Amino acid sequence: MTRFGDRYGRREFLSRGASLTALGIGGTVLGACGTSSSSSGKVSAHPGIGSGTPRRGGTITVGVASDIDGFSPASSHWDATGLTYANVVFDSLTAIANDGTARPFLAQSVTPNSDYTVWTLTLRPNVVFHDGSPLNGAVVVANINALRASPLTGQALSPVTSVTSPSTLTVVFTMSAPFVPFPYALSTQVGYIVGLSQLADKNGSQNPVGTGPFSIVNWTQNNEFVVKANPHYWQPGIPYLDGITFKPIVADATRENTLRSGGVDLMVTRDPTAIVDLGSDSQYQQVSALDQKIGEPDMDFIVLNTTVAPLSDLTVRQGLAYSLDVVTLGKLFGGGISKPSTSLFQEGSPYYAPNGYPEFDLTKGKALISQAKANHGGSISFSLETIPDPKLEAAVQAIQQMWNQAGCDVTIGTIQQVDLIQNMATGINFQAYTSEQFGAFDPDLNYVWWDSSSAKGPIALNFARNQDPQIDAALTLGRTSADPATRIKAYQTVDQRLAADLPYLWLRIAPWSMTASTKVQNFANAGLPDGSHGFPFNGGVFNPTAIWLQG
Questions:
Q1: Alpha helices in 77-151 (DSSP H)
Q2: How many Å apart are CA 520 and CA 514, to the nearest integer?
Q3: What are the sequence ranges of the domains in the chain?
Q4: Cα 3 from Cα 14, distance rounded (Å)
Q5: Angle at Cα 63 formed by Cα 45 and Cα 224, nearest 5°?
Q6: How, if at all, do strands 59-64 and 266-269 pair?
Q7: Model confidence, pTM
Q8: What are phi and psi of 318, to 5 degrees?
Q9: Domain 299-509: which CATH class?
Q10: How many other C-beta atoms are found inside a 10 Å radius of the C-beta of residue 120?
Q11: What are the tens digits of pLDDT across the range 43-98?
Q12: Strands, DSSP E only, in 317-467?
């Protein structure tokens, strides 16, 4: 499936946000320290966490599933790879701890006033960019204003009415209304800070200048991204590696084979077969997001353009939902580990509640499609596309057969990921695409994907263009209320309305994993400045700062 950088809301400016199990957002971004990690690997009790004394030096090669279109938070379309690259050369103002709370990162503190309409951010002193220039409030203001002015990211910062720097290391954000989860937004694409020289460079999206643990050596799009250690990194003692080479390898099977042949030392995948094969091999250690309990999981789904006939007809969308056998799809393509899901939230989450999503019923699906045909000249025809990958193409063929059996005329095809993202944003040449999104540490991080105001204009981040006043009201309530019970009820309403509107046809929880050779240590154990552990791996996004090689 394809993912558009959810750190707006992993994220992607899109965040892979995740809803919190603990919703306490106090005057300063605070949270408890956690150390657990999930895994199906068999190398040690804690795969992905170093078991000895960190060793300096060496390089690794990492296999990723895609490449990006640039390094500009304000204009580039970041997916999981983009956010991982951002963690390499940039730093975000806040970051997510292992318990799912937002903590200060480049910021030293992030504090609201009594009604959450003004947030004051204090920056860490003595932080410099790769070009030697200092991080200060004026730089942050310039970044935020560029993000606010961008048609791509401006929607994510729409509550911000002004941003000022009253002193060298202080930034004040004034909001149009209470913005309770604001610290989570600063951990997403809109929270990564670039140097003024990059902002001023017309080719700045190709030449990243950050404060991050590594700086760019070379980027050849769709071939490799090479970085070297930043000797002036503001967190003492890290990084341990001398450098990293990232290799975009689109096909999951090819990426797995490259790991096995030694062409890469670490890889990210969401292919269940690769996860099972590598997880049972003692030559590798693996960290999986399958059992992640914190937050809103990353979802695989089919996104429908609800403004284009015949998918603009709710009866058609209902017929497609009832005709989609996700259990069979899981058996065919899930490797025995896929978890079919028809809700934004997993059972056990405080946000979870029955939402009324249609259960598979081919007879009912056929009847609905037959009813819709009478309103559409006797035919229900549309195209379903996915990115080029043999396994995804096979899954789309199976879905095509299910929907053709229900009475639709579905054509299928492939499209490059960068074009797919562009088409979803513009609405051009887009009917139905496979997609992957919505993992979020706080549900508000998905505000821009679901709000009606984001469904309009030349670039619409509400890709499905679904407009529902009840969703809008619930999203506003969830954003402006500091009461956990109120927020839980609001996001249950969002889940229920999406199940009624059906702009997304849910398939499964995205089975992300990260696998490395046994020599690669600490790839899922990045620390935060306050001494807590960062969230190790979320929706294909990780932070390689603390990796070291076993001698």
A1: 80-89, 137-149
A2: 12
A3: 299-509
A4: 10
A5: 145
A6: parallel
A7: 0.86
A8: -65, -40
A9: alpha beta
A10: 17
A11: 334 678 887 899 999 999 999 999 999 999 999 989 899 999 999 999 999 999 98
A12: 381-386, 409-414, 432-437
